[in-house]
Predict the 3D structure of the following.
Amino acid sequence: MKTVWLMTAAVLLGVPHVASAAPTPSALVTAPTDPRAVTVQGVGDGRADDTAAIQSALDAARDKTGHGIVFLPSGRYRISRTVLVPAGVRIFGVGRTRPVLVLGDNTPGFQSGLAMMIVFTGGDQYQVGKVPVPVPGIVPAGKIVRDANSGTFYSAMSNVDIELGEGNSAAAAIRFRLAQHGFLSHMNFRLGSGFAGIYQAGNEMEDVHFFGGRYGIVTEKTSPAWQFTLIDSSFTGQRAAAIREHEVDLTLVNVAIRDTPVGIDIDQGYSDSLWGKDVRFENVSKAGVIISSENSPFTQIGFDNAVARNTPVFARFRESGRTVTGAGAAYRVASFSHGLAVPGLGQMGTTATTSQITPLAKLPVQRTAAIRPLPPVAQWNDVRTLGAKGDGQTDDTAALQRAIDTHRVLYFPAGFYMVRGTLNLRADTVLLGLHPAITQIVIPDNDPGHAGVGTVAPILSAPSGGRNIVSGLGLFTGRVNPRASAILWKAGADSLIDDVKIMGGGGTPTADGKPLNALSAHSGDPVADNRIDAQYPSIWVADGGGGTFAAIWSPDTFAQAGFYVSNTKTPSHVYELSNEHHVRNEIVLDGVENWEFLAPQTEQEVPEGMDAVSFEIRNSRNILLANYHSYRVTRTFHPAASAVKLFNSGDIRFRNVHVNAESGFASCDEAGCGTYLRASKFPFENAIQDKTHHLEMREREFAALDVAATPAAVTPATLPGTGPLRKLEDGFWSISGGAVDAKGALYFVEHRFQRIYRWTAARGLEVVRDNALDPVNLAVDRSGHLLVLSSLGPQGTVYSFDPDAPREALKVIAPTPVAGGAATTLLPVNWWNNGEFRDQYDPATDHFTTLAEMFARDAGMPKPLEYRSPDNSLALPAFRVWQQGPTDHVGWRFSDTLDAYGFTSAKPGERVLVSNESEARTYAATVGTGGALSDLKVFADRGGESVTTDSEGRVFIANGQVFAYDVAGKPLGRIDVPERPLQLLLGGTDRRTLFILTHHALYAVQI
């Protein structure tokens, strides 16, 4: 439960010095009654060292499910070393004033490098045993600490202030790099001469205020690599910048930045997807925002209704030096957008900057809080004192309904409250909890009231026009209850759902202690086996309902959708919605107007999300999606058409869209330990499909697109001097890994069905091999034999065969030390090098290793081993293979060569073109011994799945469509293809046939 209260005068006016800060009034004047909570037994006088007492309470708080609640009473608690917050533990300040965690002046260990005061930690998410990347900056040094990660849920701190004493220039108050349902709220950070308040952010923060420090927040991408949202917060008096960040998908709502040189500083060499609504800049001397990598499609910067005073430069572009200036001493930025702008569906984008800036006589008053306040604790009524048991066995339906009928504000201590019917809220009912994982309202399995075919029977039903609040609770509709839904919401514009978890996905403690798949059948159908996709939507907003929806996690695979809105025009706001793991739809709008979604995130898992649509919009108008992140996990092996599907809908505004397929994992092997981010070959092929008008949006990274009710017709682009586009074959699952032999014959792989095909004009399509050997990528040696990279085996396998020889003949090739010589080197044509989750910040140089530096470093490493073709004409460097899961055939394996859509090749000393998808750039590089690439130069600020060069030096790049460039990188035009191009190869008898491989079809064009 994220308690919310009005800002105090100290918050609004700032505090000039740490030592003189007055205590902050607290909303939790008394500790809510919860027998499972642990209370810190410290001294709290600001002089005694309370580190051990706080750490002891945190360590004792976790229950058998791995979650807990800690109460920190009012007082000043001096910290002398790093405090470690276990995963799943929430800390709440309680008492008449907020407790303060104090780092005393000149505390040893906090003067050099980077030193952490509080670290939120995580578990062994990938079960690798070792800590792959220990947290840096632990005081005292030497302790191995596992960082929070994408499997760290529910951790939080609320109603606690932090002060950094003088002489602690290396100190950062909190490291908070976790995933869903983690938050910081209602905190003041008085940072003095310290480094930062937050170093490495995650998920969501509300009502946090930063005073002083070099920075308020410094952060890279979050641990799950999706958005970070900051609401109702402020920054005052930072020495360098309020926020320094990159790749964190920063979303700001009602945030004020004052008295600092720079508002938001995006690190050199990096992009970000930044969206700000109602952001306020005052006395920001150098720039409101500094934008880096300005030509990258990953750079997506947008503001809606920002205001500024004494901020002469609103936006500054780091590389070019150009600026977007304000309009006088005070001005309004009604809208600002920089990044890839797409004029309409069916078209490709170009980088553009637009702004609407007008002068103001004076700044307007700051808007009211985006998240409405909760009632004070004195009004909370404990449902157990009103007859509910919360033991997971007693039917609490009647007791809870009586409590709702007789009391406005109900508080749920930790427990499992079983219900067999709908709890009907009154128009002003408020339901509150402290920890959704261990404070759940649940329906038992196979409940008669939720069986069979019938209308929806939700756990909670909010009435039309209500001002209801639900916060801090988990809701579980059980495994087999066809009529169940968690929430049917018809409440009005002033209602609020905040910090609510729909159980049934990751991080779900169950009342019966059984796993989620406890009622599995054995049909062989993964949907039927687990009875998933068999309930009504988890959260269903219907018939005029709306309000504010913040920090919600809805991953219940048993439901047909996680968030479903129908038949409403009520203006509504959704902030940081994590909606995942459904079979058909994640988010659905049907007959909806006047809604905005800021930082919605969806994830399609294996196997349940292979056919899911991320966002389906039907019969709807006036919808905004900003900082929208739709991704499919790296383990995905199934193509999917589009993230968004539109049916009879218009006036849909897309701002800052990020559609990809990547996820992190940890690995420990003989080469060392690390946490890595890898990309799949199967992101959504399109960002958007308009099913009514049969138009697609191929750009998957873009800053702006307005979808009209009647989009303009589009004529496919053709490249002058080329022949017509021809479809040669279709009906494939997914093809790639192609290669062309000396006679121009095309070979390619359909990995899902373990087939290797050949296509020639004379004989058409042929199957040359279909052995169960997991072929992935091909090359053809000088003798005309195929060299095959297979995903079979812990490190992959390489074998060779003559395509015209008997079908049982092949030769397995063992890796050998690199021999050098004149053999042609095979390399991935497309790379994904967006770093490890290891911190890229070096305090000694004050520099983050850039993506380009990472790529140059990783691609520049020579491989000690290689696979040689039998005739010695080809050398395939043995790239490192990472493994996730079991070591047998069930586990997943990743490498630069296995992940590529195909190979490119060159002899040592020659130049080669490769694509770095994580930068969306194409590079030229020199090939060296062991496949090392050196002297990397950017060839084009567009890069994607493939690149190839014809005999005249023209370059063709596959990135949504086929883009053509001359030898110097000047654009020549485009070839539009009916499906997304994945691999480009030149072949045919005259080598003038451009083969274009898509997932499901093979195309060709004469060039």
